[in-house]
Amino acid sequence: MTTEPLQRLSPAEYLAFEREAETKHEYVGGEVFAMAGASARHNLIVANLIIELGSQLRNGSCRVFANDQRVAVSPEGPFYYPDVVVVCAEPRFLDGERDTLANPELVIEVLSPTTEAFDRGLKFSHYRTVPSLQEILFVAQETVRLERFARREGGQWLLADHTKPEAVVELPSVGCRLELARMYDKVDL
User: Fold this and answer.
1) Which residue in 47, 69, 72, 184 is a FRET match for 63, CA 20 to 30 A apart?
2) pLDDT, tens digit, 9 for 90 and up, residues 49-77
3) What is residue 123's three-state secondary structure?
4) 75 in a structural domain
5) pLDDT at 34 over 80
6) Range 115-128 burial, b when 16+ CB lie within 10 A, else e
7) φ, ψ at 52 (rounded to 5°)
8) Domain around 77
């Protein structure tokens, strides 16, 4: 996300604008922000995540979406594009366009130097308000590190920090697991 908003819009105006835009934009507090491009390392990690999750979830009810799937924190926004999103219940979309997912169960953000503070700050606080969301993963791209936040009773979130390439991380919200070695396969760290 860029640091300067492009313009102020209502949620309906944003969705109409975004559906016609050639590039992606996120929407926070009435402001529209252009999304920056991603590095090769970032894209490779996202691809590895999609392959791993997709292969494990292929025969079940879960669906894995890539970074072009817009997610609504609420009908009024914010609207974000997580790097990876998984939903196991029947997907609920904001409207008849079926392009804005309203019930994610797992979101994954691959951290970039330019977006890390925002992803860990405001975006993280917004994600935690989504009732369906059970797990949030932050993945480093310059070192082996996966931070898993899991929703607990009473609205608390529990952090598990994984930094060993041989680590295997269970994801109970979607019924699968991630091997860090596979997540970072062919990634030059």
Assistant:
1) 184
2) 999 999 999 999 999 999 899 999 999 99
3) helix
4) yes
5) yes
6) beebbeeebbebbe
7) -65, -50
8) 38-183
